[in-house]
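Posting this for the archive.
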Amino acid sequence: MQTLEKRLAQLEQQNETLVGRTLALEQEVADLSAQLTVVTRLHEAPDREDVVRAIEEIVNGLIGSEELAVLEISGDGKSLTLLSSQGVPEAPLKRVTVGEGAIGEAAAHGTTYIGGGTDRAGLTACVPLRIRGRTVGAVAIFGLLPQKSGLEERDLRLLRLLSAEAGVALHHSRSAPTP
C-alpha cells in the first residue's frame, strides 16, 4: 500500500511540474506572438502616418496605455517634435529639447527611461527610437490602463523591441515616397 501511495505522490509531483512547464511555454508563445506582431505591424506600414499609427496601436494593445506621445528628432538633432499624441496635452510636447527632462535625456543617451508614473510629468516610460546607434525619435508613455499596476518584464522586452524596430520604420518612412 505504501508503494502505491509513494508512486501516486510521484505522479502528482510530475503532473505539477508538467503543468508548470506548460504554462511557461504558453507564456513564451504569447510573448513571441506579441513580438512578431510588433515587427510585422511596423514593417508593413507603407508610410509615415501608418508607422505612427502602428506605434500607437502597439503601445495601446500590447503595452496597455492610452496616454502617449510619439516624437521625432529634428534635422539638427537638438530637439524632438511631436508627431502624435493620445490622452495627454500636446502643448508641452510640441518641442522637447534633447538632453532636458526625462524625454530629452532618453533621446540624448539612447536609453529607455522607466519612471513608474511618479515623476513630475507623470511619465511611466520613454523609449528612444533608434537606428544604427542614432536616436530618430521617442515614444513617451504617461500612464497605463487601470488593470495594469506597472510595467512587467514582458513589457520591457516589447519596449526594447519597439525602440529598434520603430526606429527603423520611422527612419525609412522619412524617405519613403508618398502615394
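Residues 55 and 72 are 12 Å apart (CA to CA). The chain has a mean pLDDT of 88.
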